[in-house]
């Protein structure tokens, strides 16, 4: 390559290289060492050769591109592929003129759009989907009330997002591993978590699979491939990529699926996870519930891009925007995405547009930062349950009678589940010390002995409802 | 190198004090770590390595040399520059059943990933009530090197060792490096493995037993590097070498120092430390890290709580200076404990009772 260079630029280049080589000694292990190897001919990849790297950024005039004899047909052979030049000063606009369109199958009234394409759903699946959406909504309402009555310390509802919860779960297989944020209990519900099991976790009793270790709604189930909710925002995204990598290495017919909100897309972990998933070619679905609000922060204060869907392309990830309140659209999008992810070993980004009808949690009163009218509008005009119900009924698969039967059954089950959960004892004292490590270490065994001795000698200082 | 030669002299003195198997083989800490990872990857297909420059570059410090060639790019994974990203991904892979060995170019960079280490790894087994265990190892150089400045010299032993759910190890010799890293990789809990850049090139004698591929050291047991009866010197990592040199100097003055190599910061081997102090009645603790809330503070507290009536002198703490590490070589030397500081502390502990 050296003969292309004029002598003056060659000496400049060699000076740069000498300076650079001086920094390369391994004992100065700092970020100076990070140089991207060029994606040039194979021989350059294995021996990092600074000369080749610098030379590849020099302009290279090809003898012919197509049939052009034009001296302006110059192309730069740069890491990643050929880049053509332009004489114009052109900035890529910060946004497209038109927003990315949103895929939907049903209109606002639940009527199927005439030209919509979707993955068909059988009667059995459709009825289970609708029933689970109703169950989720009722479970949320009753637990929310229980918190208001002081029987639960905390709760977070998923009102308005029932379609995202249930339809996505319905489109996945039981072997797909789920990494939730905290507003996706519907996925667990679909997979068979019972109302009693939900209640046990919320009340933190001895039947809770979490042994009373976490706040309400922090569900987890190994059996159902649903990783325990971790409250830290967006940390589950890179975790999901790692799990997807593991599934790929094991050759499993399964993918990792992770959920997060519009707010979560601002976290550093979002960027690291998406970038990495593309590079690793990991079979993972990133499902963003863009519900308009991150506690009191509206999306206009969260990002200035056209939502989250456009960010996928920046990382080389195939993406789609879906109407999150349309159960059929969600089902189809997740179904197709899953196929692609597993078959082609690639990540997929799905942005589901929806609205957080409820407050962020029981610690929030959202009427303080948004109008009650706005909430009411979304709850009525775009309600995912009523839209899907219209379609299910239009197929003759549902009726008013079925609805009232379902609702009265769920209400009874919920009230019973809460009654039982409240009465069930709390976890034993030894569970304060178990699971810190695989095997309890000596210092924890000693501490437990000390605590028990203390409780025995001063029973009046300790809660009476914690079984020893 | 002067230091290395004097270390060898110290080493051979302590060899006679311990009972080694009759091997006269030597191994650098670098080779010890490399062979440990190699053997564990060979024995268990679920073990894989990830980090920046671990593959094609053969490792920023050549610890993973040869592994890419042997095991391929899927098991020796070169990551993009995102500690938060690859740590989170490593933890996710561990959740799903793989056994990642995540390398930080230095533990200073682990601060960008510390949320994943603490909240996604350390606490997971507890928060999930045993449903999610995280058999992951985080390893890399920790503490001061030579002339790398404040952002590349901090010691993280105290930070990580304060977290329940983590195990924290700090090898000194090649045998420590092999045995503890193998134990860490096999352990079902998340382990933070604190190496030292300046020790990588150090050679240590290594026994036949330690060279065997099934060799493993117990986690949570300290090692008495040198027996003594007048004062107990407790330390870890590079400072063990300094303590042994100090013990030599003290021996010339008639003071017999017992040197304890912690090997494990969490769980801390309080039993061995306290038994030694009950024998000698005097304690000197040494670490390179910042003094406030350091590892030495915990050791002193443990001894004062459990062996107070055995102490004949106040406990002594030697730590790095309470400043971000300066770059200039003369200032760096002043900011770190030296052999003379350890000798003076031991002497103070010995004269105070008179």
TrEMBL record, chain A:
Keyword Cytoplasm carried by entry: no
InterPro entries: Alpha-ketoacid_DH_E1_comp, DH_E1, THDP-binding
Keywords: Metal-binding, Mitochondrion, Oxidoreductase, Potassium, Transit peptide
Sequence ranges assigned to domain Dehydrogenase E1 component in this UniProt record: 133-428
Predominant subcellular localization, coarse grouping: mitochondrion
Reactions this protein catalyses: N(6)-[(R)-lipoyl]-L-lysyl-[protein] + 3-methyl-2-oxobutanoate + H(+) = N(6)-[(R)-S(8)-2-methylpropanoyldihydrolipoyl]-L-lysyl-[protein] + CO2
ATP-binding among keywords: no
EC number: 1.2.4.4
SUPFAM superfamilies xref list: Thiamin diphosphate-binding fold (THDP-binding)
Location relative to the cell: Mitochondrion matrix
Chain spans, region Disordered: 27-49
GO biological process per UniProt: branched-chain amino acid catabolic process
GO MF, one annotated term: branched-chain 2-oxo acid dehydrogenase activity
GO CC list: mitochondrial matrix
Cofactor: thiamine diphosphate
Oligomeric and partner information: Heterotetramer of alpha and beta chains.
Family: Belongs to the BCKDHA family.
Name under which the protein is recorded: 3-methyl-2-oxobutanoate dehydrogenase (2-methylpropanoyl-transferring)
Species for this entry: Brassica cretica (Mustard)
Automatic annotation (TrEMBL), chain B:
Enzyme Commission number: 1.2.4.1
EC main group: oxidoreductase
Pfam families: Transket_pyr, Transketolase_C
Tagged with keyword Oxidoreductase: yes
Keyword set, alphabetical order: Oxidoreductase, Pyruvate, Thiamine pyrophosphate
Record domain Transketolase-like pyrimidine-binding: where: 27-202
Cofactor(s) in the UniProt record: thiamine diphosphate
Catalytic reaction list: N(6)-[(R)-lipoyl]-L-lysyl-[protein] + pyruvate + H(+) = N(6)-[(R)-S(8)-acetyldihydrolipoyl]-L-lysyl-[protein] + CO2
Function recorded in the entry: The pyruvate dehydrogenase complex catalyzes the overall conversion of pyruvate to acetyl-CoA and CO2.
Protein name (record): Pyruvate dehydrogenase E1 component subunit beta
Organism (species): Brassica cretica (Mustard)
């Amino acid at each position: 390559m050296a003969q292309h260079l004029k002598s003056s630029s060659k000496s400049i280049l060699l000076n740069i290289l000498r300076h650079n080589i001086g920094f390369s000694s391994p004992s100065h292990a700092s970020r100076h060492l990070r140089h991207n190897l060029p994606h040039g001919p194979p021989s350059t990849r294995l021996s990092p050769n600074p000369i080749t790297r610098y030379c590849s950024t020099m302009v290279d005039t090809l003898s012919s591109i197509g049939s052009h004899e034009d001296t302006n047909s110059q192309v730069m052979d740069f890491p990643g592929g050929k880049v053509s030049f332009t004489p114009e000063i052109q900035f890529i606009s910060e946004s497209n003129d038109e927003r990315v369109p949103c895929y939907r199958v049903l209109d606002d009234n639940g009527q199927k759009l005439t030209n919509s394409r979707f993955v068909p759903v059988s009667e059995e699946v459709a009825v289970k989907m609708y029933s689970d959406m109703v169950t989720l909504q009722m479970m949320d309402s009753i637990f929310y009330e229980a918190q208001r009555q002081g029987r639960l310390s905390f709760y977070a509802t998923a009102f308005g997002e029932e379609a995202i919860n249930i339809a996505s779960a319905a489109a996945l297989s039981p072997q797909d591993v789920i990494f939730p944020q905290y507003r996706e209990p519907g996925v667990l519900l679909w997979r068979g978590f019972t109302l009693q099991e939900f209640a046990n976790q919320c009340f933190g009793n001895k039947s809770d699979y979490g042994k009373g270790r976490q706040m309400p709604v922090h569900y987890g189930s190994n059996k159902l491939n649903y990783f325990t909710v971790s409250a830290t925002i967006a940390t589950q995204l890179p975790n999901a990529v790692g799990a997807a990598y593991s599934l790929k290495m094991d050759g499993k017919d399964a993918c990792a699926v992770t959920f997060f909100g519009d707010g979560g897309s601002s976290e550093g972990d979002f960027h690291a996870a998406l970038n990495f998933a593309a590079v690793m070619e990991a079979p993972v679905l990133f499902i963003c519930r863009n519900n308009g609000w991150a506690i009191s922060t509206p999306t206009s204060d969260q990002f200035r891009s056209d939502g989250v869907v456009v960010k996928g392309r920046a990382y080389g990830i195939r993406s789609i925007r879906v109407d999150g309140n349309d159960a059929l659209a969600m089902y189809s999008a997740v179904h197709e995405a899953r196929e692609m992810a597993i078959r082609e070993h690639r990540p997929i980004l799905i942005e589901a547009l929806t609205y957080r009808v409820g407050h962020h949690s029981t610690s929030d009163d959202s009427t303080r930062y948004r109008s009650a009218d706005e909430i009411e509008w979304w709850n009525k005009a775009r309600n995912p349950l009523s839209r899907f119900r219209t379609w299910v009924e239009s197929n003759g698969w549902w009726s008013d009678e079925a609805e009232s039967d379902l609702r009265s059954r769920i209400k009874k089950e919920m009230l019973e589940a809460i009654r039982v959960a409240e009465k069930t004892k709390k976890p034993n004292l030894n569970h304060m010390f178990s699971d810190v490590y695989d095997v309890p270490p000596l210092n924890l065994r000693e501490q437990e002995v000390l605590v028990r001795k203390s409780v025995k000698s001063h029973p009046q200082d300790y809660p009476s409802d914690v079984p020893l | 190198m002067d230091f290395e030669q004097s270390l060898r002299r110290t080493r051979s003195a302590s060899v006679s004090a311990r009972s080694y198997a009759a091997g006269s083989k030597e191994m650098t800490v670098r080779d010890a770590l490399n062979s440990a990872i190699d053997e564990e990857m060979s024995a268990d297909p679920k073990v894989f390595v990830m980090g920046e420059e671990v593959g094609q570059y053969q490792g920023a410090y050549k610890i993973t040399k040869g592994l890419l060639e042997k095991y391929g790019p899927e098991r020796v994974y070169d990551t993009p520059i995102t500690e938060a990203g690859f740590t989170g991904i490593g933890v996710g892979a561990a959740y799903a059943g793989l056994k990642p060995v995540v390398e930080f170019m230095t533990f200073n960079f682990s601060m960008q990933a510390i949320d994943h280490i603490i909240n996604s790894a350390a606490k997971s087994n507890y928060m999930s009530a045993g449903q999610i265990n995280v058999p992951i190892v985080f390893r890399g150089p920790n503490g001061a090197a030579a002339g790398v400045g404040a952002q590349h010299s901090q010691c993280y032993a105290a930070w990580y060792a304060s977290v329940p759910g983590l195990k924290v190890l700090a090898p000194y010799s090649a045998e420590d490096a092999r045995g503890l890293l193998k134990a860490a990789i096999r352990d079902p809990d998340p382990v933070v493995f604190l190496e030292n850049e300046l020790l990588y090139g150090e050679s240590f004698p290594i026994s036949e037993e330690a060279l065997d591929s099934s060799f493993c050291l117990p986690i949570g047991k300290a090692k008495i590097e040198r027996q003594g009866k007048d004062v107990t010197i407790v330390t870890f990592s590079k400072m063990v070498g300094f303590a042994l040199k100090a013990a030599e100097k003290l021996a010339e003055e008639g003071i017999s120092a017992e040197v304890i190599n912690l090997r494990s910061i969490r769980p801390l081997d309080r039993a061995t430390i306290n038994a030694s102090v009950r024998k000698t009645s005097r304690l000197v603790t040494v670490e390179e890290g910042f003094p406030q809330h350091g590892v030495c503070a915990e050791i002193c507290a443990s001894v004062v709580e459990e062996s107070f009536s055995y102490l004949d002198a106040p406990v002594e703490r030697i730590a790095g200076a309470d400043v971000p590490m300066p770059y200039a070589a003369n200032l760096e030397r002043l900011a770190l404990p030296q052999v003379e500081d350890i000798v003076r502390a031991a002497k103070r502990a010995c004269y105070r009772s008179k």
